[in-house]
Amino acid sequence: MPRPIQATIHLGALRHNLARARHAAPDAQIWAVVKANAYGHGIERVFDSLRAADGFALLDLDEASRIRALGWRGPIWLLEGVFETRDLELCSRLGLWHTVHCDEQIDMLALHKTHEPHRVFLKMNSGMNRLGFAPGRYRAAWTRLNALPQVDEISMLTHFSDADGPLGIAAQVARFEEATRDLPGERSLSNSAATLRFGSDAAAKADWVRPGIALYGSSPDFPAQSAQDWGLQPAMSLSARIIAVQHLQPGDSVGYGSQFVAEQAMRMGVVACGYADGYPRSCPTGTPVLVDGVRSRTLGRVSMDMLVVDLSGLPQAGLGSTATLWGQAANGATLSIDEVAQAAGTVGYELMCALASRVPVVVV
Q1: What domain range is 191 assigned to?
Q2: Is residue 6 part of a domain?
């Protein structure tokens, strides 16, 4: 039989989360962000559940081609734009919208020969300090783009650095509004955190919002707010079976480095999941896990192919029991991926994207 581990993609949760984003930012159009192979969920798996969005946003041309191959005829947006001039040929062929964040990308457009002018998003660096034109240079970049016959409509874009924290978005919104005042074109400012936290603010909502992590059921501002607080449902569950049971005596240790030492007699279960499956090696003893839908904890260090869970107080659990590492258990109990990520010192995004190719995936 196959190794007893699987990831489950919940299509109903994806539809629910998309509807939740639309409710949070009424009247705005929605880009469903499906970069990184839909945050590890698989573009082809999630497409039908997210096609009620107004457009798909992603990073590379291969992902854009896959969306078109699925029959999507609506907008597709390259969030980082093109990386070399010849990429514009495929943008023309596939009818892609793309970001312009530097002078070199304007140069590429000026050299591009096309019969169909491009839709572009001109990006402002309003404080994130990754991509985009500084506010003082933004209007000149817009003017230069607007003069190109290769460019049709120019939309405007910025990205918030602190939408998920106490600093909020006000300062960046003010910079963006000042620099874009009186410029025509649609606007997009809000990621998942800004959509959920500030979607009722007309300036933040703008014309387009672009939820990403929220679509997949993870809270963008955890632990301040949980996925449950936001009304989000997990779109991915990772589960595996217990393949062995051990009885520990006081003083017995568990796993590499003897990171856990039993203080009393106890039972533990060995689960067929490890860091080669995408479960973080950095998860310490005490990381939450559901065993047959009942909350328990991990013990000791995560190995390549196995991890250990505490069966104390779980007399019904044993060989063949199911450990839900994150997501939804068969009895309906839920373990947020954000809790597991917090224990590992990271975020739910990384766990989703790190799911290993050797893990079988089922869609329900």
Answers
A1: 11-216
A2: no
